[in-house]
Specification:
Strand order of the largest sheet: 1-2
Shape: elongated
Strand content: 5-15%
Helix content: 40-55%
Number of helices: 2
Low-confidence stretches: none
C-alpha cells in the first residue's frame, strides 16, 4: 500500500534528492517494510533482492514480451 513520509530536504538535500529520484523511478516498488515505529522510522528489506529475483525468473523462464 501507500505510505506517507516526511523528507527533510532542508537538512539532507543530496540524500533527499537521491531518495526521491529512486522513488520516482519505482526502485522501491515491491520492497517489504517489516518494521514501523510511528512518528520515528520504518525499516525495509534490501530492494535489490526483488530486482535480482525478477531478473533470475526472466532469465530462467524467458522474457514473456
Amino acid at each position: 500500500g501507500d505510505i506517507n513520509v516526511e523528507i527533510r530536504a532542508d537538512v539532507t538535500p543530496a540524500t533527499a534528492e537521491n531518495f526521491l529520484t529512486l522513488c520516482k523511478r519505482g526502485y522501491y516498488n515491491g520492497t517489504v517494510i517489516h518494521r514501523v515505529i510511528k512518528n520515528f522510522m520504518m525499516q525495509a528489506g534490501d530492494p535489490t533482492v526483488i530486482h535480482r529475483v525478477i531478473k533470475n525468473f526472466i532469465t530462467q523462464a524467458g522474457d514473456p514480451t
